[in-house]
Amino acid sequence: MVKKMNNEEIKKETQEEIKEEQKTEKEHVENKKEKPKKKKENKEIEVLKEENKALQEKILRISAEMQNMRKRYEEEIARLHKYEGLEFAKEILPTIDNFERAIKLDDTNLDDELSKFLSGFKMIYTNLVNILNAKEIKEIDCLNQDFDPNYMEAVLTAKVEGVEKNKVVEVLQKGYMYKDKLLRPAMVKVSE
Q: What is the pTM of this model?
């Protein structure tokens, strides 16, 4: 059975169909608008992710640089502490040399009074040498050794019978090491 519809019902149904089509069309248009919006949002998210990644890498580099700077600073401080008495040691060496020269005078058979005076010098000299040794300032042993230009300066050369070439035959001024660093090279006379 076919139901007959009157004009008003047809109009009403047609209007409903039109509304339904308009609604579907509207949804379709809104979906089209949302897709570009979502694409734009996705691009922004990607850009922000890249910026975030770049900033995190920058933070890591800065952090590593700060650690390296701190390490260099600590090494520099340790080096300064290790060689803190270097300048003082350089300044006191001429005094040690003068004590040694004065003590050598005792070998020339001086009178008793001068000899007693020099024995006091010997005690002072011995105390100074002990202090230097305690501070790791050591004399360079070079007499009768091979000449080493890293620790010695050849001031004179001489032909000496029975001595090999490039041997130290006389120490004119003692050389000293401070820990593992050359404080003053020894001035020596070397055989030819």
A: 0.58
